Amino acid sequence: MTSLSGQHLVKGVDHTAFPTFDPAGTVRFYRDVLGFPIVHSICAAGWGPEKHPDFIHFFFDIGNDDRMAFFYYFGLEQPQTGSRGDAYARFDDSAPEFFIGSRHLALHVESEEALNEYQRRLDESEWPTEMRVQHETIESIYTHDPNGYILEITRALRPVVPQEDIDAELTIDALLEVVSDGIPSMDALLTYKAKLIVERSADWDNLLPQHEETI
């Protein structure tokens, strides 16, 4: 086996992630103004430790197979402030750990061997791997850098298929609808998403790749 020690294996940024109190404005800016399509979303209900709120994690395609992602937490009130700045910087010392931890940098590698190599390097350093987990389409290792920021290194477990792009669009359209109602919740989002699935199912044959039948 060829040794990977000393090689530069990272192939760029997989995604950056930030919290948001304004998913509607975020979608308008990145999708509608800048033209970055929504390519993936995660509906996380009942996730994490006790008192962790339900949340949506949604991703924009920013080119070159790179993505920018945001977390929207249901029921988390925006702090009152007159200053500008991102949601993390404007939050006070009472910010919950899950909110702080949602902001992180994820770097992409192309193989399990490469991911194992970075885990080895971390584990032999002052900043060992804190967690390794497979979730949805990726496998990731995590640690904190010397500044206290979370660093994720990730590899794809499988390609993302066109059906997932459709699912992401449905999720975000449902999210924007329930946010506009003023009482957003995961239950409301999933209920409205189900309605959209019924309404739009007739159009999917035109959106998805057609598979030729074999004899």
Give a topology summary.
Elements: E1 13-19, H1 23-33, E2 38-44, E3 55-63, E4 66-73, H2 87-90, H3 97-101, E5 104-108, H4 112-123, E6 131-135, E7 138-144, E8 150-156, H5 162-181, H6 186-200, H7 204-207
Parallel strand pairs: 1-4, 5-8
Antiparallel strand pairs: 1-5, 2-3, 3-4, 6-7, 7-8
Helix pairs in contact: 5-6
Task: Report what the structure shows.
The protein is α+β, with helices and mostly antiparallel strands. The chain has a domain at 13-156: 2,3-Dihydroxybiphenyl 1,2-Dioxygenase, domain 1. Helix content is 33%, strand content 26%. The chain contains seven helices and eight strands, in the order E-H-E-E-E-H-H-E-H-E-E-E-H-H-H. The chain has helices at residues 23-33, 87-90, 97-101, 112-123, 162-181, 186-200, 204-207; strands at 13-19, 38-44, 55-63, 66-73, 104-108, 131-135, 138-144, 150-156. It has an eight-stranded mixed beta sheet. Strand 7 (138-144) and strand 8 form a beta hairpin. Helix 5 (162-181) crosses helix 6. The longest helix is centred in the last third of the chain and has 20 residues, at 162-181. Residues 211-215 have low confidence and may be disordered.
